């Protein structure tokens, strides 16, 4: 229940009014931390109470609730279907094509225009998606990269049998590292130090 507080504020003799009574209603007696001195002509004339405006939490919640999750998702839905291809840069097209075709066994998508671009390259099938191999200058350094490809930017390819790929890489003399988490996955690099991950999936 609110209590009635009455306080008397005395002004200086220079004022026409000698005494002013101020009555206010409050639920809590304010502390001196919320008060500041009232000074005029270098003389103190008492204190005045500082108050802070409160922001309505209920109003803020209502505004946020008015923007539903579904409407936000609808605004960002521009029809993502799948990953179409990943572009990989190489210094020597023949050397890289030999690796991707003869070591990894990827096939060229002959339907893609190899001769209509101002650089040499090939589109390689990775399931229903592709790798676009491009013979272009690589802005990334070839040395000083992490030994484990999982700690570098990399392309991940889902496969059925990691142990079989491991045997293929061993036979070809291609170095690799296994997943640090213990899951069936293997990391290697192509001739241009582009990191590749092969993770085993079921089905």
TrEMBL record:
Annotated SUPFAM superfamilies: Glyoxalase/Bleomycin resistance protein/Dihydroxybiphenyl dioxygenase (SSF54593)
Membrane-spanning ranges: none
Gene3D superfamilies per the UniProt record, alphabetical: 2,3-Dihydroxybiphenyl 1,2-Dioxygenase, domain 1 (3.10.180.10)
Domain annotation VOC: ranges: 82-203
Pfam families, alphabetized: Glyoxalase
PANTHER family documented for this protein: GLYOXALASE FAMILY PROTEIN, VOC DOMAIN-CONTAINING PROTEIN
Protein name: VOC domain-containing protein
């Amino acid at each position: 229940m609110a209590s009635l507080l009455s306080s008397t504020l005395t002004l200086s003799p220079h004022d026409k009014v000698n005494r002013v009574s101020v009555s206010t209603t409050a639920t809590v007696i304010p502390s001196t931390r919320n008060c500041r001195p009232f000074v005029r002509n270098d003389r103190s004339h008492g204190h005045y109470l500082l108050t802070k405006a409160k922001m309505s939490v209920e109003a803020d919640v209502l505004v946020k609730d008015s923007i539903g999750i579904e409407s936000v998702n609808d605004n960002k839905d521009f029809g993502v279907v799948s990953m179409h291809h990943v572009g990989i840069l190489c210094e020597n097209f023949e050397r890289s094509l030999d690796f991707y075709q003869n070591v990894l066994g990827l096939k060229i998508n002959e339907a893609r225009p190899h001769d209509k671009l101002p650089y040499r390259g090939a589109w390689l099938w990775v399931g229903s998606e592709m790798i676009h191999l491009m013979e272009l200058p690589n802005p990334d350094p070839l040395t000083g990269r992490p030994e484990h490809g999982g700690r570098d930017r990399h392309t991940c390819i889902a496969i059925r049998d990691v142990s079989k790929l491991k045997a293929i890489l061993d036979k070809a003399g291609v170095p690799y590292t296994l997943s640090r988490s213990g899951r069936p996955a293997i990391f290697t690099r192509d001739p241009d130090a582009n990191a590749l991950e092969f993770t085993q999936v079921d089905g």
